[in-house]
Amino acid sequence: MDTKTLFDTIRTDPSPLISAAQLNELLTLDAVKVFDVRGTWSTPARALPDDFHSGHIAGAVFLDWTKHFIEPDIRLGLAAIADREVAKHSFRELGINQGDLVVLYDDNSHMMAGRMWIAMRRWGFQNVRVLDGGWKFWQAQGLPTSTDEPVLQPGGFEPTDMPELTIDIDEFLTERDLSCVIDARGAANFAGNPDDPRTGHIPGSINVPFSALLDPQSGQFLHNDAIAKVLDERAPGWRSSSVIATCGSGYAATVLLLALNKMDKGGTLFDGSFAVWKQDPNRPVAQVT
Description:
Layout: H1 3-12, E1 17-18, H2 20-26, E2 32-36, E3 39-40, E4 46-47, H3 49-54, E5 56-57, E6 61-62, H4 84-93, E7 101-105, H5 111-122, E8 128-131, H6 134-140, E9 145-146, E10 166-167, H7 169-175, E11 180-183, H8 187-191, E12 206-207, H9 224-234, E13 243-246, H10 252-262, E14 268-270, H11 273-277
Parallel strand pairs: 1-8, 2-6, 2-7, 7-8, 10-14, 11-12, 11-13, 13-14
Antiparallel strand pairs: 3-4, 5-9
Helix pairs in contact: 5-10
């Protein structure tokens, strides 16, 4: 398949992912914009520009997940996806245009890339993919890296509202009993600490750790049948109900949403997730004992 045909095929493919081999074939195209979204939730939560400067996918630009497509002047754990004007500024600053194919990657199990993926889609940009396996898999395959930093020209993408992709706390309170609510955090965070009654999870939510959806060696997503098996075992209502994805602050949940979209199922992100839920002391918290 020639490069132009591959580009058109990926842009029309409903999968949220792109393989390392596919991206490698497309790196020379001006309309392919690659963004490095490496970061960590380790204290303090932060982007990792120094990692980018030390080496990144050839042609990639650093995207600071703490500054782009996020509600400003709010603590990171509580900050929602940006409003239209902030999103428009991010699209412009990152040089993103309507006809582009955007590829995002990180080295944190797709959490930061996934957050940017849902944020871009929330504001109408559909031609966005997450690199399956991220930076670590790209390196393991010996694919092109660089320390060069491309110069961006202002982008012209005009955001359009796609509110059905996320819900806030008020909408969640209405929809939770009608949906399959899946918490994508690790088991320990979901279980909570008995010494801290405001840790744990939203009552009624089901734990499917994001790591269970990924191959532990390559970091790539499992095949669809394997993902479906994990979900069938842990959250049997996922097939027949709408899925609301939640986690600690709305990042790990996007790994679940990537897996669901990979299977053409889809779901909705509870933006803010448990961090927002537990702000009201009158809302109950459950723990695993």
